Amino acid sequence: MRERPKRVTLRDVAKESGLSPAAVSYALRGLQVPVETQERVRIVAGRLGYQVDPIARALASGRTGYVGVLCGSLQDIWQQHVAAALGRELLEVGRHALIVDASNSPELEAELAAQLVDQRVDALIVLWVDPGGRHWPEIARSTLLVSIGDGLPGASTVAEVVFDNDTGVAAALGQLHSAGHRQVAVLTPSARNTPDRPAEIAVGRVANELGMQIRLHMSPHELDGAAAAATTALSADPSPTAFFCLADSMAYGVYAAATRLGLRIPDDISVLGYDDHPVSQLLTPPLSNFRWPVDSLVTHAVERTVRAIDTNKRSRRRLLIPVAQPRGSVGPPRDRGAQRR
What we know:
This protein folds into three domains: 43 residues, no CATH class; 129 residues, Rossmann fold (3-Layer(aba) Sandwich), CATH 3.40.50; 142 residues, Response regulator (Rossmann fold, 3-Layer(aba) Sandwich). The chain is built from 13 helices and twelve strands. α5 packs across α12.
């Protein structure tokens, strides 16, 4: 049986360089020693095949270099896009992302959050399922917690990048109202055992102000499940003349259901999405929705996460405002007069 080659240690590099292990450690991290010394140590380390021991570095620094990214549901292709972008940007600043999927389950979300803390992530970025979960205050005491979407009531987050749902929902329902719609189905990922999310709260308030009849329908992000939720919504009496979907992935299910039922968009049913995934432009007709500034979201989240890791300082809440993307999936209801008050 072949013996495993002996691992080159920091002391080996120090002996070869004629420096102390502490000086070598500083040189490899670009700290407290001249640039010439840093370059000389890197050359020696490369020649010897020295590699940083991540466990030893974590024990010495108290940091692992890993940031958890806990997603509510990676069946939502918008969350896939955000998670991938977070992973890339974290890598650019020398951190590695551990991306996990809560599958839209509050129970799994709590379990995964605790597991990531146990793995000693330096921080945890969450696109949450249940903002009112009892686990969040303890998670915030155990690691640096960053929330995307809205705040986490009762949890001491170090940063929050939040969506202006009041503006987005008011614009969305206002668009449907102006087109003549009064009976609207809203597809939402929220489960029955979770508190209302900020977007759902805004839906109820704005609908009441506009005199619209709204029915909330829980929907998964995956296509067949969203199509089933849309089919159920269309069987209600009175049936909706329009759908407002709190994720574009759910709107794709409405398109599928409409096709199966022989309905045309927007002639028979209007559909409005909420997060402007690029696929939405390829539908027939292209999906009207709202564009959230994903690049800014990712940049702000990563900057604030790294700042908290390096300095333990909190950042002010960052508010993101959506921009309407009207394309062709919204029109007047078929019997417009019957829908007016």
